[in-house]
């Protein structure tokens, strides 16, 4: 998986198709990502000694194949490629504009 926390992505499939947001968390073993304000679910929280029970709205993980990164130059979705920088280090780049992703 080529995504990192903080990447700006767009959802390309599912009920939230077309929504954009930043990646909050990556789940590499499951090949899923959590994107802010996307795939919202309601979770019932049991009461404990300090807080009362409630219904909390939170983001659920979405499969990494259902999101694409947004190109920083063109602001459109793109695939992620790899190239080497001047120091010889492997870095991620946007396929459409060859812009290096940090």
What does this structure look like?
With 102 residues, the chain is mostly beta strands. The chain folds into two domains: 1-70, SH3 type barrels; 76-102. The chain has no helices and eleven strands. The protein has strands spanning 8-11, 20-27, 32-35, 40-45, 54-59, 62-63, 67-70, 77-78, 80-84, 90-94, 100-101. The strands form three sheets. Strands 6-3-2-1-7-8 form a six-stranded antiparallel sheet, with no helix packed on it. Strands 9-10-11 form a three-stranded antiparallel sheet, with no helix packed on it. β7 and β8 (77-78) form a beta hairpin. The chain is elongated. The two termini are 15 Å apart. The model has no long low-confidence stretch (mean pLDDT 96).
Task: Please sum up the structure shown.
The protein has 102 residues and is mostly beta strands.
Helicity level, as a percent range? under 10%
Please state the second-level CATH architecture of the largest domain. Answer: Roll
- State the end-to-end distance: 15 Å
From the helix content, strand content and strand pairing, which structural class follows?
Answer: mainly beta
Radius of gyration: 17 Å
H/E element order: EEEEEEEEEEE
> CATH topology of the largest domain, what is it called?
SH3 type barrels
What order do the strands of the largest sheet run in, or round the barrel if closed?
A: 6-3-2-1-7-8
Reading off the top of the CATH hierarchy, the class of the largest domain is best stated as Mainly Beta
Question: Count of helical segments?
Answer: 0
Can you tell me the overall shape? Answer: elongated
Quaternary structure annotation: single chain
Q: Structurally, how many domains make up the residues? A: 2
Largest sheet: 6 strands, antiparallel
Unreliably modeled segments: none
Count the E strands: 11
The percentage of residues in β strands lies in over 45%
């Amino acid at each position: 998986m080529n995504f990192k926390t903080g990447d700006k992505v767009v959802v390309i499939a599912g009920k939230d198709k077309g929504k954009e947001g930043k990646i909050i968390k990556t789940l590499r073993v499951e090949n899923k990502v959590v994107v802010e304000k996307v795939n919202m679910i309601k979770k019932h929280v049991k009461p404990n000694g300090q807080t009362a029970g409630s219904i909390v709205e939170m983001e659920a993980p979405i499969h990494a194949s259902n999101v694409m990164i947004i190109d920083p130059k063109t602001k459109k979705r793109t695939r992620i490629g790899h190239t080497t920088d001047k120091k010889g280090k492997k870095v991620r780049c946007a396929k459409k504009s060859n812009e290096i992703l940090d």
